[in-house]
Amino acid sequence: MSDMLKTQEGRVVDLKEWEQRWDENKIGFHKPQVHEMLESKIDKVLAGRTGVRFFFPLCGKTVDMKWLADMGHSVVGVEIAEKAIRQFFVENNLTYSEEPVPAIPGAKVFRNSEKSISLYNCDLYSLTSSVVGQFGAIWDRGSLVAINPRDRQKYASLIISLMANDCRYLLSTLMYNPELYQGPPFVVPSEQVHRLFGERCNVEQLLSENVTEDRHRAWGVDYLIEQLYLMTPKIS
Ligand SMILES: C[S@@+](CC[C@H](N)C(=O)[O-])C[C@H]1O[C@@H](n2cnc3c(N)ncnc32)[C@H](O)[C@@H]1O
Fold first, then answer.
1. What domain range is 28 assigned to?
2. Per-residue confidence (pLDDT) for residue 5, from 0 to 100
């Protein structure tokens, strides 16, 4: 790892801090519209398939879930902030049920069965494929970049365990000068994506765009590049 990245390596944001961000409405990461990169590359993710099971790690209340559910796909997300999950259903005019998850102490799952959307309210790392199954697609935006840098290997192992053989994993990462902002979101360079996933997945970079907005300049960074990857499992 380069010296520059070492500035973020030890940074830890705990789950309480994330919940506090939601309580204080400090959710600048939330986009009111469907993510442009997802929309532009959706055909590559679907690859002609219908009724795909999508996984949203660290889902927040992203409207991308509703967009895909409206297209007939099913959605499973996980999010530590209960407030985000409730807001997702309310803001999208969806009714929901709420029940405990026996396999995960303290966890709840919020569901809208009509649209097939299930959002788990728990720590991402407590999910396993025996609880949620495997997925035909994963949309990872604000997720790998949001977890604590020291947990990346654990994160990659979990994501790989949730990929079905035909899974298409769309990943968005960010690049900026980590000396200027401590994160989250954290910088994830291309070499690291390859190091984390390259042994088990084919990794294709689809896009690299300068997406700097005023809210990023307010962090102190001078540029912010978003990179998009499509990964598929190497079948042995
Ligand atoms: C940067 S936000 C991105 C949300 C969403 N993907 C989006 O694009 O709008 C990260 C979200 O992950 C949640 N989160 C962070 N760590 C988590 C964990 N270990 N387990 C579950 N949720 C977590 C936070 O509460 C926050 O809503």
1. 3-231
2. 74
Q: Is residue 155 part of a domain?
A: yes
Asked if residue 236 is part of any domain, the answer here is no
Query: Which residues of the chain carry a pLDDT beneath 70?
Result: 1-4
Beta bridge partners of 68: none
pLDDT recorded at residue 235: 83
Domain count, the chain: 1
The pTM score is: 0.98
DSSP letter, residue 116: T
CATH (domain of 171): 3.40.50.150
Hey, what's the torsion of the CAs at 169, 160, 148, 138, to 10 degrees?
Answer: 30
Distance CA 108, CA 121 (A): 5
| Residue 26 counted as domain residue | yes
Binding site membership of 84 for ligand 1 (Cβ less than 6 Å): yes
pLDDT tens digits for 78-130?
Answer: 999 999 999 999 999 999 999 999 999 999 999 999 999 999 999 999 999 99
Among 42, 62, 236, 39, CA closest to 137: 42
236 Cα to the center of ligand 1, angstroms: 32
The residue whose CB lies within 8 Å of the most ligand 1 atoms, and thus the one to mutate among 11, 66, 80, is 80
Question: In this structure, how many other beta carbons lie within 10 angstroms of the beta carbon of residue 83?
Answer: 16
Q: Supply the residue whose CA is at minimum distance from atom 12 of ligand 1.
A: 58
Which ligand 1 atom minimizes the distance to the CA of 147? 16
Residue of minimum CA distance from atom 4 in ligand 1: 60
Q: So what's the pLDDT on residue 7?
A: 86
Dist. CA 60 → ligand 1 center (Å):
5
